[in-house]
Write a structure and sequence with these properties.
about 130 residues, mainly alpha, three-stranded antiparallel sheet, 6 helices
Length: about 130
């Protein structure tokens, strides 16, 4: 399902993030971009294997939307059997580059949260059990 522009502004966008989210919004689009970065020229089945859990319908739909937005290139070869390959356009590669700091932030946050959880578990294990003292 394509995200619609928000009302209230001439272009329908509140800010640049809003415009970007219109392109990458959804559970799978960013992962499709990542997969096409990891494997620059991919067939549909290869993409599906790189994204466990995605349905064919959703992948096909998202690929069409990303192609319409100009971030994914679809090349259809006139062969038997038919062959179609997907890759990132220059805008798609730039979008992936723009997403790298977000990925770094998420990895750092995940590491910090895991460390805090380990420390909390260790503190709890080191404290005497109040029930055992009674």
């Amino acid at each position: 399902m394509t995200t619609l522009n928000r009302p209230g502004t001439p272009e329908g966008h509140v800010c640049g993030i809003d415009a970007a989210m219109e392109v990458i919004g959804g559970k799978w689009k960013v992962l499709i971009l990542w997969a096409l970065h990891e494997q620059p020229c991919c067939r549909f089945g290869e993409l599906r294997r790189l994204l466990p859990g995605i349905t064919e319908k959703v992948l096909a739909s998202h690929l069409r939307e990303l192609e319409a937005d100009g971030v994914v290139r679809r090349v259809s070869y006139d062969e038997v059997p038919p062959r179609v390959e997907y890759s990132l356009t220059e805008d798609g590669a730039r979008l992936n580059d723009a997403l790298q700091p977000l990925a770094a932030w998420a990895r750092e946050r995940q590491t910090a949260r895991a460390a805090a959880e380990r420390a909390s578990t260790e503190r709890a294990a080191a404290e005497p059990d109040e029930q055992a003292l009674l």
